Each structure stands twice: as C-alpha cells, then as structure tokens.
Amino acid sequence: MQELIEVKINEKYEQIVSARALHKFLESGERFSKWFARMVGYGFKEDADFTGVLFGTAVGNGAHQEFQDYALKIDMAKQLCMLARSDKGKQARQYFLQVEKDWNSPEKVMARALFIAGGQIEKLKKELDSAERRAALREKALTEAFRLLEGAAARIVKEVAIEKEPQPRRHYKAQKMPFELRRAIDRKLEEGATYQEIAAYVREMGNFISTSALHRYNYQRLHHPENLRT
Question: Confidence class of residue 103 from pLDDT cuts 50, 70 and 90?
C-alpha cells in the first residue's frame, strides 16, 4: 500500500498522524492555525483525541525555529477527512481505514505482543545484577514472557473466533442534538440530501438518528425554530 500520509506510533502503541501533514494533503486553503481551531470546534478534546507537539526546522539565515503541530489519533484524522468533503478527504479517509485494518490484523497484534514481551524480558535482564539473584530472575523472566505470549495468543484467538460487538453509538432526538451536529445536518438539508443519506452521514460520525427524527427536526427547523435548543 502506498504511503499517502505518515502514520506513527506513540508511547501507548496508538496510531497518530501529524495535523500539519494532514492539512497539507487535504490542500486546505485556510491557514493551518485557523483550520485546526475550526476543526477542534467540532467537539474534539486535547489529550483524548489529540496532543500538542513542537517540531523545529532551520530557516534561511541558519537559525532554528519551532512550529506548533498536533498529533492526531487516527479516529480523529478519519473524521477530519470526512469533514473536508472533498476527493482528497475521501482518499485520505480510505487510506487511514486500510492502515487501521492492517494494524489490527492478527499478525500485527502478535508482532506487538512479542515486541512488548521482549521489552519486558530486557527489563528483567537488567535486574540481574548479582550472581545470587541471577537464577531466580531468569526463571521469573521466562515465566513472565510465557505469560504475556499466552495472553496475547488467547486474545487473538478470541478476536478471530468471535465477532466483535459494535461500538455503542449515541442516539439523538431532534431537540437534543449538539450544536455542531445540528449545523452539519443543516448543511446536508440545504444541499438537498435525503433523510436516509443524512442518517448514514451521521452514523459515519459515530452517532445515530432515525429518519423520522430527522423529519421532525426539519419541520421544527422550518416552522418552529424557537423550540430547538441553541
């Protein structure tokens, strides 16, 4: 698979993406700082969905300058691609979906388990600082390594044999939708999208609303906007 945008791994073994790299790939006409502030306004939270990072680069006079960037979790990156509503956004989202699928394959899960187990073994080896403790700690390291490997194998067997339960979605009534979701639905209605298309769009954003609720919302929006929560 061709790498469109670099996906890195943080210290918690989570996939992350540079916000600046994504902004550049999407070819947004907005200045990066303004674009990112607008994206965060859709309800994303620092430390939960992204973290701030600094990177440095050399400028023309040889000086070193630092720039603000943000490490996005891959779920946030996928949602930003969807909000872009462009061919580039669609292309990047499909790429992230494939990267995520590969990351969660049984082979990659086992490889990560082996890597973590290897790190645990190395940590235990460093504790062997005396001849008296060497034999006991060697046995402890082997036992811990086998325990980790057995646990990883059991998780893989369970994931392959049993279909994962779907992630719970938030169900919304027309009068209780958050402001950013209402604005997104308003845009779809103004573009002439059907209730079925809007319901599918809301599901992609990780939420749920029925077509009947959308019908009631549109009626309230057109005839009694004062009844809707601002």
Answer: confident
Question: In the block, which residue shows the tokens 């460093």?
Answer: 126
- What is the largest distance, in Å, between two alpha-carbon atoms of the chain? 83
Identity of residue 115: F
Pairwise CA distance, residues 148 & 120, whole Å: 9
SS3 call for 168: coil
Which segments of the chain are extended strands (E)? 7-9, 15-18, 50-58, 64-73, 170-171, 207-208
Q: Cβ(178)–Cβ(162) under 8 Å? A: no
Which token pair is 206? 């990780």
Question: CB neighbours (10 Å) of residue 144?
Answer: 15
Alpha carbons 194 and 197: distance in angstroms, whole number: 5
> Do strands 15-18 and 50-58 pair parallel, antiparallel, or not at all (unpaired)?
unpaired
Cβ(49)–Cβ(72) under 8 Å?
yes
pLDDT tops 70 at residue 199? yes
Copy the structure tokens of residue 21: 């790299």
